[in-house]
Amino acid sequence: MHILITFDYKTHYQVQAMERKIKHKLRPQNAFGLAKDLDVPASCPREELHQFLIGVYGEYILPSSVYRFNQVLRAPELYLSPTRPLVSDQMLRGVWTRLRDRLSSLDSDSSMLHVTPAYAAHFIDMYVDKHTGKHLTGDRIRVLLLTLPFLLRDLIAPEVERDCYTFSLCIHTCIHI
Amino acid sequence: MNHQIASAPVGSPLRGLKPIEDPSDEIIEVHVSALKWNILQRRFGLVASDLAKLQQNSVELLELLKSNLPEKNGEASGWNFEKAHSILHKTREILLFGWSENFSTQVIVKIHI
Predict the structure, then answer these.
(1) Complex confidence, ipTM
(2) In terms of residue numbers, what domain contains B32?
(3) Radius of gyration over alpha carbons of chain A, in Å?
(4) How many domains does chain B have?
(5) Global pTM?
(6) Is residue B93 in some structural domain?
(7) Is residue B88 assigned to a domain?
(8) Does any CB of chain B come closer than 8 Å to the CB of residue A18?
(9) CB distance from B109 to chain A under 8 Å?
(10) Mean pLDDT (whole number) for B64-74
């Protein structure tokens, strides 16, 4: 790997002079940097928080799962006309509201962890509504890692199995009751 | 949806479509695999047989990501990028650096918060 480094000689000599004066290395050379053909960034270990929890799981697996559900419900062949999908926006919203409610229904008595409605809403904001300013810490991602395998079960079964028109009327009626 | 596809009249764009399948099982399979991988790689005192199992789990997780979530989130590159690939390096990192917590930054992040 070749890296172009601009070298500031003036600063270098100033630091060297100061090192001589105080008899102490201010910029000790990292031994890793001396190893031949060693790519230091590549050889460093990836830590769990950024590599897996926030990285692979939070940044890729979760959005991909949401995308897969959306992809099934809004497949191009499931449009009755170019602007009229079989699964309406309201029905699609109902799926994510269902997931939010499943998440917020977890309590420590039954699930050994408690998820607040605010956390569940935050999850939906972040992964469904794609608010770019919202984030989750590693511990909060871990809550999803532990619970989503159970909460995603049959998430879109009502939309897949039932008559969309009748189901849409049910949602509409429930919302207005 | 399947009810409407099955009863779609002649001329309807839904006529003749295959029934829609709920992808929950495939998605859950990925999530369970991710959970298993995470639990195993965090364990203290992994022995050689555990590390061999971890490597096997890493390969399985990556293969599941490719097969069950093939389009990722709509990006063309799929799962061919460094961070996804890095799960395959975990066994080697544990061999070189020891227990995962040795190089975890979570404690520092908690202090910061």
Answers:
(1) 0.90
(2) 23-112
(3) 26
(4) 1
(5) 0.80
(6) yes
(7) yes
(8) no
(9) yes
(10) 90
